[in-house]
Amino acid sequence: MSQENLFPKETNFSPENEIPGIRAKIIGIGGTGLSLVDGLRFDNFQSVEHLVMDVDTRALSESIAGEKLSFGRRHTRGMGTGGEHTLARKAIEEEKDVIRKKLEGIDLVFLLAGLGGGTGGGAAPVVARLAREAGALVFAFAPLPFSWEKSRHSMAEECLADLRKFANAVVPLPNDSLLQMGGADATALECFAEAGRNVSQGISAICSLVFRRGMIDVDFVHLRKAFNRRSGRTLFGYGEGEGEDAIRQAVRELLLCPMLHLPDVSRAADALLILITGGTGMGMAELQQVSTEIREEFKAGEHIVFGAHVDENMGDRVQITVLGATDLEAGLPTADVAPQAREVIAAVPKSKVAHPSKLTKQKKNISVQKVPSSARNRKKEDLDQNTFDFMEEENQRGIFGDLPSRNLYAGEDLDVPAYLRRGVKIAI
Amino acid sequence: MSKIIGAVEIGTSKAKALIGEVAENGSLNVVGMASRPNEGMRKGEIVDFRKAAVAVHSALEDAEKMSGTTVDEVYLAQTGSHLKGHMLRGTASVASSDSRVDVTDLQRAAQEAKRKQPDQGRTYVHHVRTPILLDGRIVQDPVGMIGAKVDLGYWSIDGDDQAIKQALHVISNYSLDVKDLILSSIASSTMMAGPDLRRAGTLVIDMGAGVTDYALYRQGFVVSTGVVPVGGDHVTGDLSMGLRILEPYAEKLKLEHGKALPDPMDEGEDVWIIGNKTIGDRAIPRKAITDVIHVRVVELFEIISKELDGLLDPNELKGGILLTGGASLLPGVEQIAGKILGFSARRANFPSGIASELAQPENATVLGLLHYGLEDNGLPGPKKEGAETGFMGKFRKMVGLGTQE
After folding, report:
1. Integer Cα distance of A36 and B371 in angstroms
2. Mean pLDDT computed over B235-250
3. Largest CA distance in chain A
4. What is the DSSP string of B314-353?
5. Are the beta carbons of B8 and B33 closer than 8 angstroms?
6. How far apart are the first and last CA of chain A?
7. Does position A249 have pLDDT exceeding 80, yes or no?
8. pLDDT in tens, B296-331
9. Where are the alpha helices (DSSP H) in B30-150?
10. What is the pLDDT of residue B235?
11. ipTM over 0.95
């Protein structure tokens, strides 16, 4: 093996990081991933490590992340891949062992990779697979190129499908939606910053759940149970409210969040994570009501992770973050990952050991997922049979997301709202 | 003796059934009409057979009840993005010794044109005849004229086997025969553009819920047809996503406040989603609604313009552009169509004599089905009775799936 394989091994060994308990790692891959990781402000979570990897050594040297891994030097001589994701894939496959080492003992992996580029698109699915194999729960945040960047966009779609096979939840962040963010005259910089803030928000919500003690507490086992083996369509959104009616305002803003209104986002979640963070004045009744409302809005299934945290610094502000995932028809995890994922449950030696009931439930779930294609619909039908049947019907009409084929015309999917593809800002 | 004929359109938002009585003098009387919301359909194609069948059957049942009669055969409208049109041409040299064109010459030419088999997994839906050329000149009826060679073409539309079979099964499950499959766009143009308009040249655009059909006529004949899988549902979907509201509210806003053309008067004005100011109700700027719709409608006409590239000739399109279909009710669409396609566009009017409750743009296709069935679309020449009527008569079957089933 070449020299660069030895280099990171040495610098990586840092005993002070070996805190027993949950370890999380934020991994940025490629140019977009790098800048996202650099944009994160995560000083208050000690057991969250940052790792960036890229083929472009110069970009890597400018990053402020704690750990860096340069790969593929043999192929690109330290330059970028120029959009060739096959090249990146080949390069990363060669570094498998190094990455495995870096993932050792990590329970939670956040993957940040722009799928439009070569490095992000090619390497992210591989890293996700390795992380999954190492027993980690993988959440991926994946910026997608504008839909008018046709060839890049279709490449990104392929990579996204790949990534979905391995990650527990993939939150796509299409650049198309950037335009819908911020105020009417938001600058490009503000929009991109907003996108970064979204990622940051998602990660911090999950981290708070796992690492902080809250009023209504959940821990990593809950999270893993809810999101284990799920990959597919996700939903992600957050809202913030301030003042007297803060919590209602936050719900309102959450429901208006542009991230929840994208063509690829599912309307219903089989697994849903809700985190409400507020100041000391947050009312219990409100909390209860809001959580019910959100659950109904997303027709959450049996896997709900609900956490409420009090943060004195919040004052009279309230923040709500939701992250959900649906069992996917096509994106069934491949066989080589599945057995490992099952082992993981049994192997978690935490306080709340998976007791028998949990295991049976999990098994049932697996069997449901093995039913091909229509599994998702059928499952939903069972759930909604008596309750939300009519709502379901109403919501599906005209939403073309559940149709199997895409409505392609000259490289554009006509079912995606025209205003998103044409970059027209809708001010509401 | 009068004759009862039926027409069925399995539309994306509604399934419609129409029953007409043809009097002996050839005049048509609509005696039964029913429409049912159809949830088994997306973008002009059946996705849930059972739901589609239930909708069609109950519409047929209601129409039969209303008319007090039963039908045995229906004309069925066919649409969906799987349909593709091609021009097929056939030539025959005049056989008779005195060089007079005979009906058999035309038939030979027609046979040759239709000889080309569709690709694997595709079926012909509809053959529409284009002008007959006698030695290179366009003639209305060459029979009896002197010439050496007749040339005729068919604008032939083929579609996906499965999709067509599904539609046919919906009808046959009601123990009805499909007399003929007719392209939706041709059915609605028959209704909305009279013979004189078609002769002047016109483009008829039928904007439905799931798809938009168009048919371009020149000198009375079809030049091109097409289906764009974008319709009113897309506008609703866009609104729901763009304004972040539920589907039913988006539909309501579209119908009540939807406009395709930005209006400076709307600046700063808001509308309420639900209107009763309950929880969850919120105000939305009119401008946002219009913006969302505008982009979608502009794109739709841009696609049509691209598809018809080079076919829109000012000298051949004196009749302008006619818009019909439920989605054409959106204020402002005609201006946008006119601007993007470069011809004057207007909402089509029904010919007089259609009852006002029927004369809705969304009924254009189903009404057109009956009228198309009535019209003579066969080859010119003296009509023969007997064996030929199946092929040549007034209610002749088009060669296509209708006869094979």
Report:
1. 63
2. 87
3. 63
4. GGG-TT-EEEESGGGGSTTHHHHHHHHHSS-EEE--PPTT
5. no
6. 56
7. yes
8. 999 999 999 999 988 888 888 888 999 999 899 999
9. 49-67, 103-113
10. 93
11. no
Q: Which of A258, A407, A418 sits opposite B238 (nearest CB)?
A: A418
Provide the token pair at A8.
């990171």
Beta partners for B34?
B17
Whether A408 and chain B come into contact, CB under 8 Å, resolves to: no
Least confident window among B60-69, B94-103, B128-137, B368-377: B368-377
Q: Is A394 on the interface with B (CB under 8 A)?
A: yes
How confident is the model over A6-24, as pLDDT tens digits?
A: 444 433 333 343 335 778 8
Considering only the beta carbons, identify the residue of A397, A409, A427 that sits closest to B285: A427
Q: Do A427 and B303 touch (CB under 8 A)?
A: no
Q: Taking CB atoms and an 8 Å cutoff, what residues of chain A touch B306?
A: 410
Tokens read off for B401: 């799936």
How far apart, in whole angstroms, are the C-alpha atoms of residue B355 and residue B216?
27
Query: Which CATH code for domain B194-347?
Result: 3.30.420.40
Count, in order, helices (H) and strands (E) of chain A: 17, 12
Q: Is it the case that residue B204 has pLDDT exceeding 90?
A: yes
Under an 8 A CB cutoff, do A256 and B244 touch?
yes
| Residue of A238, A115, A180, A145 lying closest to A420 (CA atoms) | A180
> Is there a contact between A233 and A365 (Cβ–Cβ < 8 Å)?
no
Closest CA to A69 of A23, A9, A118: A9
Treating both helix axes as pointing N-terminal to C-terminal, what angle do A389-396 and B247-257 enclose, rounded to 10 degrees?
50
Residues sharing a CB contact under 8 Å with residue A133, sequence separation 6 or more, in sequence order: A100, A336, A337, A340
In this structure, what token pair is assigned to residue B391?
């092929």
Q: What are phi and psi of B128, to 5 degrees?
A: -115, 125
Q: Of the ranges A281-285, B14-18, B106-110, B119-123, which one carries the lowest mean pLDDT score?
A: A281-285
Residue A231 predicted with pLDDT over 90: no
Substitution target from B295, B305, B306, B309 for chain A, most A beta carbons within 10 A: B295
| Amino acid letter, residue A255 | L
Residue A426 contacts B, CB cutoff 8 Å: yes
What backbone phi and psi angles, to 5 degrees, belong to B398? -75, 145
Q: Where are the alpha helices (DSSP H) in B206-362?
A: 232-242, 247-257, 286-307, 333-341
Count other Cβ atoms within 10 Å, centred on residue B24: 8
Q: Tell me, yes or no, if B285 comes closer than 8 A to chain A by beta carbon.
A: yes
- The CATH architecture to which B84-159 belongs is 2-Layer Sandwich (3.30)
Task: Please count the other Cβ atoms lying within 10 Å of the Cβ belonging to residue A380.
Answer: 20
Rounded Cα gap, residues A209 and A109, in angstroms: 14
Domain A22-355 sits in CATH 3.40.1170.60: no
Asked if the Cβ–Cβ distance from A417 to B42 is below 8 Å, we say no
Extract the tokens encoding A166: 């391995």
What is the residue extent of each domain of chain B? 84-159, 194-347
Cα atoms in the 13 Å half-sphere on the side-chain side of B211: 26
